[in-house]
Fold this protein.
Amino acid sequence: MKRTVVGFMAVLAFTVSTPQASWAASEVDALIEKLVEKGVLSKNEGIELKAEVAADAHIVREDELKRMLPEWVHNTKLKGDFRARYQYERKANDTDSRDRGRYRYRLGLESKVNDQVKVGAGLASGAEDPRSTNQTFQDTFERGDVRLNYAYGEYSPSPEISIIGGVFEKKKYLWTPDDMLWDSDINPTGGAVHLERKLVGNTKGFLNSGLFVLDESTSSDKPDPFIHYVQGGTKWKNSSEKVDATLAGTYYGFNAVKGSNLDWCAGTNTGRTSGSTSSGACTGAPIYDFDSVGGSLEVGVNQLFGGLPLSFDERISLFGDYIHNFDPSDNANGFAAGVKFGHKKVTNKKQWQARYQFTKLGKDAWFDALPDSDRLGGATDVYGHEGVLTVGVNKNVFLEFDYYQDQRITGAKNRAQVMQADLNFKF
């Protein structure tokens, strides 16, 4: 013990007296070897002391780096994902089919400016289409596009209030249990507020409201098209947290959308004569407004049967969505209903989740530039089925198989099918 203390003090004195201590590893190692050679330290003590000194030097280097960088860098987080996809499509009447290779890459960062403010930005593969970040394998190895996926500032004056503006991910600010109305790739532009507060027991109430700008009007006497909404709801859990439920009602108001030829439509609202081209242009304009009211619900139970093999009942949830457009007299309603079972979220190997959804969306129930683009090209006037199986193969790596079978509500009853096999990596 005496030799160890003497040796450590000698090395410490040498380290402190060296002007650039964190870069003097070789000199410290040489001194330790001399102490071992003189018998002041045993061989094992010398090895242990080298390891301790190396660890201390590492800490010193990290502290020096932190002091050199501005504080906001330390408060910045990176996240992202990569997806490789094989997709098979069969059009109506089984007369046209194709195979596609596609990929998606997304990278985002979030910086905490202070305790109440943060800013975020993200990049994503894909072209201009707001309902897709996919890049298709095509055009003789042509390099894909990378675009700004979102950029926002968020202010949270208290844990109960959040206010956001810019281009942002809508999940926190508009709750929906499915993609009947909103494609998951859409990041709205505008601003929104989220309020959430504990009510009684295990019940919380929330209120979301916002304004999403759709376009800039080129006419001085015509207002910009936009959507404003108000959503109120509750979240509840029983005392054992085995059962939970979320319920919300939403009002949507559409401004200057009726009669406007906005881009990236599916061409299925009354008044449209064709959907968007590769540049996003549509032909025709909706003849109805889309001011509407809707309701959303999800009820979940954890281990309903006490824990079945293969985690079939790790979590079982039922979900649904409804929308009604006030303007048209026909084809003005839409609803979705489904079930999920397995793990609540797949983040590791041996975890899995299965989901089924039925969707029926009337021709003029909703604006045809917003629904899930994989469901008959993002159309309204559609009903059909979707099944999804997600399987974890490693930590943050999972396989997903997604199958759509859809057809138009009006006209010929010809089914279209889409099958997707994805390998996903999250970081």
User: Anything to note?
Assistant: The helical segments are 2-17, 25-37, 43-68, 71-74. DSSP finds four helices and 19 strands in the chain.
